[in-house]
Amino acid sequence: MNTKGNYVSEWFGHRIYPRVAHARQAGADQEAGRCPFLSHTIEEDRSCVKASSAVGVCTISSESNQRRQDWLACPYRALQDSLTTDVVRHLFGRRIENEAIFPAPSLARTEVQSRILQRLTDDQDAIVFLQDKLGGEISVSKTDRSPELAFDVTLAELKQDANGEVDVASYGILEIQTMDFHGSYRAAVKNLRDALRLHKIGFSKALENNPQWAGERIEGPNIANVFKRTFYQMMLKFKIGDQEGCKGCALAIPESVWDSWQRHLGKPDLVAREDGCFELSSPGREIPRNPPAWIFVFDIDSESEITPNPIIVKRRVATDADAIAHFALQVAPEAAMGQGGIRLVSDRIKLRLSRFWPGVWATQ
Length: 364
Hints:
The protein is α/β, with parallel strands linked by helices. The protein has helices spanning 24-32, 36-42, 81-92, 110-121, 186-199, 203-209, 223-240, 255-260, 321-338, 345-353; strands at 7-11, 14-15, 57-62, 69-72, 101-103, 127-131, 139-140, 149-150, 153-160, 166-176, 246-254, 271-272, 278-279, 293-300, 311-319. It has 2 domains: 7-64 and 184-218, no CATH class; 81-177 and 224-336, no CATH class.
């Protein structure tokens, strides 16, 4: 198999590069255009919500970090119980089980309402989460001095008040970091849809023999653009995570993106904590035991025989907005100036201008 280039690596939730999932469920989801992550969350079949030119594309496999990694192309790919439960436990500071977490649309079912009311009566946890296609995003309104800000996922802790009425006791924020890519998925998606139509039952085997179908015109990730686009929002949301009533903000970021951001953050050293997590703090500041911000670095287990492949949390980093600002706006610029990059700018300008005005500056 060709190991160079960029490829659609998961299509409708199932692995197609660098190996192909042959499970019956993989073929069924691809044939039906079904999103296994939304369908599992809502407990009823849901089609992929992406535009036709990108339909079914969950992740892209690229070597942009000098090794092959999956890069997240759809936020719903991160909708797996293991990651959601992990985030909830760290934000709310206690061991909350998956059965205590409910997608907002499920509240329309009377049996779910009864389960939640019983849990609250028994003084058990009940967490409801809202997302774009799962009840809608929650946003902070703009003011004349600040922009509107929408949360990727809002986690609401339900409680009963003194009158026995259901109330929102607190909330948390989960941001899921996807990646932008140069170019379009259109050609590769057309290949995959045509191959599925023509080969039917033999689709996975045909794809295994023709991996180039999943790589046609697929370009690499736009790393710098994503960091610039998300840095400001990340800072604001980490600040919101420190406000009264909010249990914190978690950024769930694929390991590929975390690796690519190291230069933008000055490649900080993480400090190990006793609880198995890590800490990222600015000089002279301590991160509290219950921090206002978390970074969850995760990867997709591409070697797993389970399909869709499970998500693995690689590290959990307690931090805050001041720490991120320190490393991105102070450490990284100082490294750029201190290692010769800035000092070479004048030489590079002269070299470029010498192409138009030969002989004025000596060229190397």
